[in-house]
Known about the structure:
The structure holds 2 protein chains of 2 kinds.
Chain A: E1 10-14, E2 17-21, H1 30-37, E3 56-59, E4 62-65, E5 78-80, H2 93-100, H3 110-123, H4 129-135, H5 147-166
Parallel strand pairs in A: 1-5
Antiparallel strand pairs in A: 1-2, 3-4, 3-5
Helix pairs in contact in A: 2-5
Chain B: H1 3-8, H2 22-27, E1 42-48, E2 54-60, H3 62-66, E3 70-74, E4 84-85, E5 92-93, E6 99-100, E7 106-112, H4 115-124, E8 126-131, H5 138-141, E9 153-161, E10 175-183, E11 195-200, E12 206-210, H6 215-226, E13 233-237, H7 253-263, E14 267-270, H8 273-279, E15 286-294, E16 300-310, H9 318-327, E17 337-345, H10 360-378, H11 382-389, H12 409-418, E18 449-462, E19 471-479, E20 482-487, H13 496-508, E21 513-515, H14 533-556, H15 564-572, E22 575-582, E23 600-613, E24 618-629, H16 636-655, E25 661-662, E26 665-666, E27 685-691, H17 711-725, E28 731-732, H18 736-740
Parallel strand pairs in B: 1-14, 10-28, 12-13, 16-17, 20-21, 24-27
Antiparallel strand pairs in B: 1-7, 2-6, 2-8, 3-7, 4-5, 9-17, 10-15, 11-12, 11-14, 15-16, 18-23, 19-20, 19-22, 23-24, 25-26
Helix pairs in contact in B: 6-7, 9-10, 10-17, 13-14, 14-15, 16-17
Amino acid sequence: xxGVDPVLGYALEVNGTRxxxxxxxxxxxxxxxxxxxxxxxxxxxxxxxxxCGSCSVLVDGELVCSCLVLAAATVGSKILTVESFGQPGExxxxxxxxxxxxxxxxxxCTPGLIVTVHDLLDDDPDPDESAIREALAGNLCRCTGYGRxxxxxxxxxxxxxxxxxxxP
Amino acid sequence: xxxxxxxVRAPRVGASAPRPDGGPxxxxxxxFSSDLVADGMLWGHTVRSPHARARIVSVDTTAAxxxxxxxxxxxxxxxxxxxxxxxxxxxxxxxxxxxxxxxGEAVAVVAAVDAExxxxxxxxxxxxxxxxxxxxxxxxxxxxxxxxxxxxxxRHLVIRxxxxxxxxxxxxxxxxxxxxxxxxxxxxxxxxxxxxxxxxADDGGVDLxxxxxxxxxxxxxxxxxxxxxxxxxxxxxxxxxxxxxxREDCSLQIHLCLLALATxxxxxxxxxxxxxxxxxxxxxxxxxxxxxWAHPDGTIERVDARLVLDGGAYASSSAAVIANAACFAAxxxxxxxxxxDGWVVRTNNPPCGAMRGFGAVQTCFAHEAQMDLLAEALGxxxxxxxxxxxxxxxxxxxxGQVITGTAPVAEVIRTCAEAPLHDDTDNDNGAGVYxxxxxxxxxxxxxxxxxxxALAVGFKNLMFSEGFDxxxxxxxxxxNGLVTVTCACAEVGQGFVTLAxxxxxxxxxxxxxxLAPADTSIGSAGSTSASRQTWMSGGxxxxxxxxxxxxxxxxxxxxDIDAPEFVEALRFGTWDELVEHHHxxxxxxxxxxQGNAHVSFAFAAHRATVDVDVELGLVKLVDLVTSQxxxxxxxxxxxxxxLEGGTVQGVGLxxxxxxxxxxxxxxxxxxxxxxxxxIADVCDLRVAAIIEQPEPGAPFGAKGVGEAPTIPSxxAVVAAVxxxxxxxxxxxxxxxxxxxxxxxx
Lengths: 168, 745
């Protein structure tokens, strides 16, 4: 893997910032590097095998489970984590809708869902219910039963279309 | 107050206030226990038994200790205080000494510089085992040689209600149905696994940040096993990634504190999913044999049942689980005579304890199947049969306790049953074949699809029962106009933090309410379980707020929270009240299982509609309807979240969720192999009715709402599959082979 030196480490572009990774062993997952070496704990580990989506991030615009991606293999890629959406105290439209619609309970699955829903709505601004269910089928939530999550996605979709309608 | 003031007023009781931790959680900035770090922190790991039952011949830690970066390897010899722990009985070794009794039992713990080194050190601990045949059959365990010094029977509870004459000849002329029902072992599967961070303190004590349901009972168990005074063990709630019963028992709490004190360094531990499956208790598997007798008009005369719950290797909360299973064994119906023979036993299977619904889920699956059989035998409509026998205030439950509070059983049944059936014209939603049982796999032939609809009803107690002195503690302090609530109630996602703010706003007329961290610096709030925190900690916060309000009213000369004198006094005074709130006392059950053991009850009904591919055994949920008795809604949005989330956990137990245990070994300890419902597996939940009849004694009349949705949902979904297929399906979860290869009833 080019740009990866076992001793000197490597650099990742995370949320628009170049971050140097040292001390990482070459087989380390992107999830563990983000959480334990870069202090970005937004992505959560809950299954370690790509079943639950809690660790979802975008790598070059592609939605991935960061637990299944080798960190060293993302050198040269643009990585976006949940921390890239909104600012501290200033929520993105998806984050705000999750709070307003009651889509957050324990919140452990929420960061992964936020990344996934941003990805969905960027691709398909007006998803019908089956498209929402298909897009979110890789994100397990144990608290909500998913009803308020669908509500939140619909609310953002409607609002964005409303905003688009008044924007020349 | 002007209209403008009203418009910006922060939401009070009855409004859908947003949760205060919602923003940070949605941004990934909320600190769960697994996110915590400290300078100089080590990582812990647990050495676990690969065997369901074995004698420990030796434990050799030499190789593990020799690894670079390893700071401690601890075994049972390193536990300075009480060698055992447990929620009700201290019967489980902190670290196994002579024998392991289930696969996954902790034998040693290590601490090392990083997680990977800790994992390798754990692998390097050499444990020599001498295998013993595991006892894995709960029925056999009743009379088998004991696997534990305390014996195999954790509790045998017999309820004799009315005048249940054995082999009563007067029953001969009645309509009778019988059946044996089985419930598999369900996992709570909270998304956050067990995690915590322990820090040694200068005073010789320890500070533990941990995700748990009950800080104080953890504190007491940690202190006992560390041999420390309780005040030297201080617990603070770390962000909790769901609980559902999985965090009521200690998992890594004692281990972390042992390691922190042994190393003098902060120690963090996070279970991976596989370890989590053996690191916490599960829902008890149950085998339940029932017989019902009813008069030709449908009036139930008698119910006999024998319940055998598998508690696994250690007691946990088994004694309370079997009490619930037995007390609510006949469902929310008038039953003049009953004998309920309840057993919960030790085996070498994984330990079982609390999970949402707590015993009532298992018996609801059985009693509702019986009610459907009875309706069929009587030639009666199953909803009419339920309505005919529905409990009302003034009726007795099986324990002889007269219901003095609200019991809108007929209302939840009627409203749920009367909801219009699913309208297929907007079923597909453009999904086409995706909406069939085979889903995206496109395996289902439309000609093989059968539809079924069925209804189920269930109930359980709220809060702790059988004479337990159940209380919560809350403090409300106002200084410089800033209102702060302190309560050790564990927020696990249910939304207590939101309700606490709403209650204080309602009582004191303020908008801004700060919440202090939940920790052991204040008295216990009790457990976040048993649908109890709205009543108990909500009640404590209400009582503390009212105490503050009374003091302010004295000073201001008015009790009107909107009066300028009151607002002024509140803002410029310092007010501080701490209240311990107890619910009405209960008593233990007597030798016949009779007595006023419970405080209050909540009732719920579900109606499920399913499409079943009878050739492939696949089930598609088409529609779910519910009605629930809630006393009073405090936050409609959070209530809806509890109804939806609880219902889907019940759906999981109906259709997919089971820990498969073979010879005491868990075969599917991962989210690849243990399936929980995804968003593609479920349908919308339609709420037919929220029944609001204020419950006497409850804060604002509100009943706890968390568990009731999980109780009848399983029974309703399986009954709908029965209705679609004509199969008996006496076991849940229903597996595809049960349908495709099943025998018609």
